Amino acid sequence: MEEKILEELQKLYDNGRIGALVQEICEYFATKDNYENGSYEDEIEPPEITEAVYTLFCLQAREQILDELTLVSKKFPALYERVRDFHQLLLVNMDCKSLEESSAKAILQYSANGSGKELDASLQIDVSAPEVADAGESISAADTARILDQVELCVRTTDSLSEALDKFYRYLHS
Known about the structure:
Elements: H1 3-14, H2 20-31, H3 47-59, H4 62-75, H5 77-92, H6 96-112, H7 117-123, H8 130-134, H9 141-156, H10 161-172
Helix pairs in contact: 1-2, 2-5, 3-6, 4-5, 6-9, 9-10
């Protein structure tokens, strides 16, 4: 990883105006390209899950997250280059409900297509059901709603988005 990005990451952690979730997101995007041939699998969730989960939790406090990412763009330009596409995704998608649904579906599709066998049981998805077997646009509205409800519950029952994120990952793997 570039020395400049490491330096900016350290300064980011020392900046009290940027919350723990945005710090984690910046670290994730700054380091994700360093994993070779799926080596991330033992350390972090696959990108299909991680990025969808980050999106869902950022939408819970969208304005705050957008403000923090804008601050990252101004103070940490090298680091921001790595997180710019994610920031733009949150910024340009004014229809938050649609973005929430597509993120929830991404989590469900990853589980349903067999890549996330561990998630199948915790999400209670019947992978033999015809609508899941196609795994395209046919994830049920009830499954999507269950993911969105769990995100909301995690946010309501914790003190920070970062804690809520950890709680949601525990739910996914329980």
